[in-house]
Write a structure and sequence with these properties.
Layout (H helix, E strand, L loop, with lengths): L1 H21 L20 H19 L13 H8 L2 E3 L10 E6 L10 H10 L4 E5 L16 H16 L6 E7 L1 H12 L5 E7 L13 H4 L5 E3 L12 E2 H11 L13 E6 L7 H10 L5 E6 L7 H4 L4 H4 L2 E3 L13 E4 L2 E5 L33 H8 L8 E4 L10 E4 L6 H15 L2
Parallel strand pairs: 2-3, 2-4, 4-5, 5-8, 8-9, 9-10, 12-13, 13-14
Antiparallel strand pairs: 1-3, 6-7, 11-12
Helix pairs in contact: 2-3, 5-6
Length: 437
């Protein structure tokens, strides 16, 4: 009798887990079409294969897209947004001899780097510009359950080698957002390339802004998801798996040791108000890196200005810092007023998700089709109002990092664009021209 009860008591939780797994929607299960690290394929072949896998996964998990992406995108349009890209013009004018590789962040896609890629093309029309899609990304969120950071590193190595091995290219620049910046640092700590002339690290994720992330390599074996959300963003995953967090932790573990200090010319852009990464760790990495050719664009508000003083930052390092003057004022609502192309809106601070995107981006911009309102209960009235509210001139919507306090009657929409994008781009171009001279 006792053994029967024991078996029953052990079996019941197991059955509950199996039932729960079987009830997961297809979009939260591995697709079987996950993006892998390319090996022998040309970059053009890799793009075509990725496009096919993305669409197959979306059509399989979201046939006819019954749930619908916010903004009414089709699966084909989502494929085009998420796929890797390449511009290889083959001309001999401005930018010839240059190659740019852009790496996105965790659960993102190359779309997060598409504005920068487009502007690089405008400034260097004869350069080769590539956007990598990391393994496990771009298809459906369920594929993040099986991806590994070693796969990301393998894909990074393939992409860097594919550029540096091109005879017509003599200057390579690596640009990484969030975990993409970490991949660049990790790669350059392991391999040396004479053709690499500079790196641009945007919202560099050297450490997560949570002490619990160290537990995720263990927690992922008992729980799949840190957060489950409706997959309504056509450009990236909404749900966040514990495996993604665990692999990010393993990727960044040890990056602050001497072997990974940056030796190449470096431009870094960080928001002190970033709630996803630890901004002070990125600042410390910047200051401790031995390269002399380095610049840090540091966005801060009155509430976050003390972060730079918590570290023993030397005057020599401070000389390399460019502050965002507009957000050094006190964070009262009166100072949140911004304007873009004659349109007024409220902007409190720079969110992690915002740095690489233009204010007029049709998907993530001020009037973009996607509205990031996940700080509210998904089935609640505030979430509905935040998503549905269209007039940013009336002072109701505040674009800000998660957790920012807003006034009663206002709604927090997590920032997905950078009001200072133009200034940042000018700095990137100046850095490239200076480093490649």
């Amino acid at each position: 009798m006792t053994s029967h009860l024991l078996r029953s008591s052990l079996l019941a939780p197991l059955l509950m887990i199996l039932v729960a797994c079987s009830e997961q929607p297809l979009v939260l299960q591995p697709s079987g079409n996950a993006i892998q690290a390319p090996s022998q394929a040309t970059f053009a072949e890799y793009i075509k294969q990725s496009q096919e896998l993305i669409l197959q996964s979306l059509e399989q998990a979201l046939p006819n897209n019954p749930q619908g992406f916010m903004g009414g995108y089709t699966n084909q349009q989502a494929r085009d947004m998420r796929a890797p890209f390449e511009w290889q013009p083959g001309c001999s004018g401005t930018g010839s001899g240059k190659g740019f590789l852009l790496l996105h962040g965790l659960t993102d896609s190359p779309f997060l780097m598409s504005d920068i890629a487009s502007d690089l093309r405008q400034n260097y029309p004869c350069a080769v510009i590539r956007g990598l899609l990391l393994p496990g990304h771009g298809t459906i969120a369920g594929d993040s359950l099986e991806m590994t950071y070693q796969q990301w590193l393998d894909a990074t190595r393939y992409s860097v080698d594919s550029l540096t091995n091109m005879d017509e290219i003599n200057q390579v620049f690596l640009l990484g957002f969030s975990a993409g910046a970490s991949l660049i640092i990790k790669h350059l700590g392991q391999y040396n390339h004479e053709k690499i002339k500079g790196v641009v690290l945007l919202s560099a994720a050297l450490k997560a802004n949570s002490s619990l992330i160290a537990l995720t390599p263990y927690l992922r074996h008992v729980k799949d998801w840190s957060g489950e959300y409706q997959e309504v963003d056509a450009a990236r995953y909404e749900s966040f798996s514990l495996n993604a967090a665990a692999e990010f932790y393993l990727l960044t573990k040890g990056l602050m040791t001497d072997g990974y200090r940056m030796q190449h010319p470096m431009l870094m852009v960080i928001s002190a108000d970033d709630s996803t990464i630890d901004a002070t760790t990125a600042l410390d990495y910047f200051c401790q890196s031995p390269t002399e050719n380095k610049t840090l664009m540091w966005y801060q508000t009155a509430q976050s200005a003390n972060k730079i003083s918590t570290l023993n930052v030397t005057p020599a390092c401070l000389d390399k810092v460019i502050y965002d003057k507009k957000t050094e004022e006190p964070g009262a609502t009166a100072n949140w007023q911004r304007e873009f192309n004659g349109k007024s809106y409220l902007f409190a601070n720079h969110a992690h998700t915002a740095i690489t995107i233009k204010p007029d981006n049709p998907h993530y911009g001020i009037d973009g089709k996607y509205r990031h309102c996940r700080g509210y209960q998904l089935d609640g009235e505030e979430y509905r109002r935040c998503v549905a509210h269209n007039d940013t001139n009336d002072g109701v919507i505040v674009f800000a990092e998660s957790g920012t306090n807003v006034a009663p009657g206002q709604l927090l929409r997590r920032g997905t664009f950078n009001p200072n994008y133009k200034r940042m781009l000018m700095q990137i171009v100046f850095f490239i021209d200076d480093s490649g001279a």
